[in-house]
Amino acid sequence: MIEDYRPGDVAMTNDAYSGNVATHSPDMVMWKPVFWQGKLVCFVGGHIHNTDVGGAVPASLSRTLTEIHQEGIRIPPTKIA
After folding, report:
1. Which of 30, 50, 54, 80 would bridge with 72, disulfide CB 3.0–4.6 Å?
2. Contact 32/9 with Cβ under 8 angstroms?
3. What confidence tier does 18 reach under pLDDT thresholds 50, 70, 90?
């Protein structure tokens, strides 16, 4: 929930099926809230594309994979700091 964010929080995900920010497992997205005078005013974020997240094949992507779990580790939106 947006009201749960506090100054100093950092969150991340690579899960294409929750959070609506990553398109597939190699997309790692991180964001943090920005506060001004105690009020949440925006979020800043970054995106990287990893070459491999431990999937069934090198680079984690193949047309032969039939479900997202075969692409590798799946991290739901999670606060990490």
Report:
1. 54
2. yes
3. confident
Summarised one tens digit per residue, pLDDT across range 69-80 is 888 889 999 999
The pair phi, psi for residue 27, each rounded to 5°, is -80, 110
pLDDT tens for 23-55 read 888 889 999 999 999 999 999 999 998 888 888
Domain count, the chain: 1
Euclidean distance between CA atoms 22 and 18, whole angstroms: 8
> Under a CB-based contact definition with an 8 Å cutoff, are residues 22 and 14 in contact?
yes
SS3 71: helix
Is 26 within 8 Å of 50 (Cβ atoms)?
Answer: yes
Q: How far is CA 59 from CA 13, 14, 69, in A?
A: 18, 15, 14
